[in-house]
């Protein structure tokens, strides 16, 4: 299943209309379980920080996490970078219209991008599974962090994170270059890149996996069949939305021995 065509349709649909774009971000915050986990970690990190933080959103996409940080922490300066020019242009136009002047978006390839010791926090959400040369990216992000800075990663695990559950199985998301990270493997790669301390935990345990199927996999499969299902989606989500919220809350509250996703933190 290719996400890019669906992303392009969504981009054209939400456009730069302030109300629709904000509503879209709000729906992503509620439906996407990874957002629940990421926000939990961001809140914990922000408590101990000063006002004037420098943040890099490495692989910013639609700008969902940059939007959250820019509104919540107005004294922070946030740079979002993405490998797709249309995403960069789209976000710059919207954030300018929304008067969020503590943000900017640039075109960048993470295998080549670094800004020496500039950032207190680097955020990488659902990015590393798309990049073959992950070791180079980890080194670049390490170089970009200030001493004591933190890298926060959300990525699929090797426990079925790309919906691959057996050897030689095919991925549900065909844009992934790897089916998921082993929890030890990714920490070893980060340590080899220079990070002094790493921590990792599973997300998307049993409740999270069910929520993901209801909120993402089944709708995307339907949209892959026909654009007609865009008309049905609002009614579908009206039915499954309450169940997804309960499942998401359960997943964030439970410590998982296994899961299809990983939350990884590394400090310089």
Please tell me about this protein's structure.
With 268 residues, the protein is of the alpha/beta class. The protein has one domain (4-206, 256-267): Rossmann fold (3-Layer(aba) Sandwich). It is 46% helix and 18% strand. It is built from nine helices and seven strands. It has a seven-stranded mixed β-sheet, sandwiched between helices. Strand 1 (54-58), helix 4 and strand 2 form a beta-alpha-beta unit. Helix 3 packs across helix 9 (233-253) and helix 8 (206-225) packs antiparallel against helix 9. The radius of gyration is 18 Å and the shape is globular. Mean pLDDT is 89; it is low at 168-172.
Main attributes of the structure:
268 residues; 9 helices; alpha/beta; 46% helix; 7-stranded mixed β-sheet; Rossmann fold
What is the chain-wise order of helices and strands?
Answer: HHHEHEHEEHEHEHHE
Q: In DSSP terms, counting alpha (H) and pi (I) runs of 4 or more, how many helices? A: 9
**SS-derived structural category:** alpha/beta
Using only C-alpha atoms, the radius of gyration works out to 18 Å
Write the layout of secondary structure elements.
Elements: H1 4-14, H2 18-31, H3 33-46, E1 54-58, H4 64-72, E2 77-82, H5 85-97, E3 103-107, E4 119-125, H6 134-144, E5 145-156, H7 183-192, E6 197-203, H8 206-225, H9 233-253, E7 261-267
Helix pairs in contact: 3-9, 8-9
In short:
The protein is of the alpha/beta class. It has a single domain (4-206, 256-267), classed as Rossmann fold (3-Layer(aba) Sandwich).
């Amino acid at each position: 299943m290719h996400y890019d065509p669906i992303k392009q349709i969504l981009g054209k649909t939400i456009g730069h209309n302030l109300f629709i774009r904000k509503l879209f971000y709000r729906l992503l915050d509620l439906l996407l379980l990874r957002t629940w986990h990421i926000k939990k970690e961001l809140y914990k990190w922000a408590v101990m920080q000063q006002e004037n933080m420098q943040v890099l959103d490495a692989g910013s996409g639609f700008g969902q996490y940059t939007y959250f940080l820019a509104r919540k922490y107005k004294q922070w300066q946030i740079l979002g970078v993405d490998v797709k020019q249309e995403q960069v242009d789209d976000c710059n136009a919207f954030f300018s219209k929304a008067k969020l002047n503590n943000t900017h978006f640039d075109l960048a390839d993470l295998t080549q991008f670094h800004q020496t010791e500039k950032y207190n926090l680097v955020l990488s959400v659902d990015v590393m599974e798309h990049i073959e040369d992950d070791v180079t990216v980890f080194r670049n992000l390490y170089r970009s962090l200030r001493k004591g800075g933190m890298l926060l990663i959300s990525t699929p695990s090797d426990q079925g994170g790309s919906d691959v559950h057996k050897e030689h199985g095919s991925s549900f998301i065909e844009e992934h270059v790897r089916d998921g990270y082993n929890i030890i493997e990714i920490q070893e790669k980060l340590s080899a890149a220079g990070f002094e301390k790493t921590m990792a935990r599973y997300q998307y345990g049993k409740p999270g996996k069910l929520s993901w199927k209801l909120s993402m996999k089944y709708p995307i499969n339907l949209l892959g069949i026909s654009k007609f299902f865009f008309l049905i989606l609002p009614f579908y989500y009206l039915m499954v939305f309450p169940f997804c919220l309960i499942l998401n809350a359960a997943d964030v509250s439970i410590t998982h021995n296994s899961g299809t996703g990983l939350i990884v933190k590394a400090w310089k």
